[in-house]
Amino acid sequence: xxxxxxxxxxxxxxxxxxxxxxxxxxxxxxxxxxxMPITLDGNLKDLHLMRGETYENAALSFARENGLSExxxxxxxxxxxxxxxxxxxxxAAKADQRAPLVQFELPLTIDNRxxxxxxxxxxxxxATAQRFLQDAGFSAEVQxxxxxQILNVINQKLQELQPAQxxxxxxxxxxxxxAATARHFENGNPxxxxxxxxxxxxxxxxxxxxxxxxxxIQDRMRASESTQERAESSxxxxxxSGLSQQQDTRRELFSIPLTINEQPAMLVHYDGLTARESAIxxxxxxxxxxxADVGQYLPQLEPLIDAELAKRIQxxxxxxxxxxxxxxxxxxxxxxxxxxxxxxxxxxxxxxxQQAILRYYEGDSIDRTAELFLEQAGLGNDPAFNDNxxxxxxxxxxxxxxLLAQRQAETPVAExxxxxxxxxxxxxxxxxxxxxxxxxxxxxxxPRQAANQFCVEKYExxxxxxxxxxSGEELQRCESVLTETLTKxxxxxxxxxxVQREATQATGQQLGQATHGEQAQPVASTTEERVLLFTLDxxxxxxxxxxxxxxxxxxxxxxxxxxQRYNVxxxxxxxxxxxIREQLNPIGG
Length: 589
Prior knowledge:
Elements: H1 2-16, E1 32-40, E2 43-50, H2 55-65, H3 72-96, E3 102-110, E4 113-120, H4 125-135, H5 140-161, E5 167-175, E6 178-185, H6 190-201, H7 207-235, E7 252-260, E8 263-270, H8 275-285, H9 291-340, E9 345-351, E10 354-360, H10 366-376, H11 385-410, E11 426-432, E12 435-441, H12 447-466, H13 472-511, H14 516-529, E13 532-540, E14 543-550, H15 555-565, H16 573-587
Helix pairs in contact: 2-3, 4-5, 6-7, 8-9, 10-11, 10-13, 12-13, 13-14, 15-16
């Protein structure tokens, strides 16, 4: 009797201390729902509730194992404790199982079945498509067929739900001769926009193309920002505090396309920043500010920036050496020319308290003459260099017009040069400043003379009509490219004429009828037949090479000769032939 009472008192004391009991994780036995620790005679015992077992049976089983089966009140208390704990567990589980929010619903009809596609918040489009097809009960084969279509429907709906983006600008350019347009939207990612541009054209988005297009977009963005800053500066825009708005005036040196957190990003390095500063700015802009994460990324980013910076410094030094050498050679050529030529015009120019003589030689570029004069006078690095060069070039043009008008007035009409009345040997279509011009080449002309005359005249037209300004370097580049083009055309024509002349002479000897005049006739005829239809600009090793096509030429022969001349793989011949035929179709050739 005393032992029984003693056991009851101990159990009641134990039950009073059970307010702090917590549920343990599921036991190794998969049938245990939960376990509660019970202190009995100073020892811990486990009270289990098995799957499918009632609270009363679980309490009775525990009491029987511990010799308390005769104590009905103890069994009842244990049963109530199990029930209360189960209610707590179920309540917590219900709180965790919050109903997912529906993002949108779409009614669909598939095989005459009216279905409803439900997209949940936070669920990927792929997961939604798979769940929809599985819930609809389609076979595995049908699911495979329908999956791309369902996924496309979901993505279209998601795109419609996106807030409308404001287009800031559009860039037009060419990719392998195909017109392309890249659009930049407010808060848009240049890399993603570059990929979308290529995707719209059906071109695989390789890293090289994506990087080039993204850089074009970024260049335009910076140009727009610079224009806006100048406009704000000129209009005196101020912040609400009355202080001038501060802008980051650092100059971008280069950018590196990267992937961070599985998202494309562009690391931009500005002049005046260290590699570490640029890396930290990049990480901060992409939401990485935790010191541990920053410390993990910095050893990877800093060497990238340092390597690119060293490469740019080396390229800049090489470019400066090349420019200095070119400048030295130009000055030597200029001095040699001036030693053997007489200036057409001399103008006295005041520079500070000194005077210098600006000499212009016939056939020279007016703009380049003005630039060289300023450089030789020590004003090459002056901030107003461009303005001064334009002003001097204008003075030169005015004086030249006066001089030419004076000479024309003094020259008898019979001695004045006449416009050629003969037909040109050939005509080359040239595009300058988005305008089309024709370069007529006459017999007896020198290629460089014809090129120089064309470039100077047409640049003057563009300057007068649309106000375009061209540097001496641009004029020299125009003259150099056209001289090379004319030389190639003449060389090819001479080769063709030589072959045909030999054939004509052989035929004349066989017939015994050839005279000197009769032999010259086919040559003249051949020259007249060499009518240039068009010229294709072909990229060869990142340089532009021109492919001229004449009337009656064979596309395959021209394409093959071009590939052989520039050491291009003959596998490119079909593509060149296709490009030639595409140009011939509008002409009717």
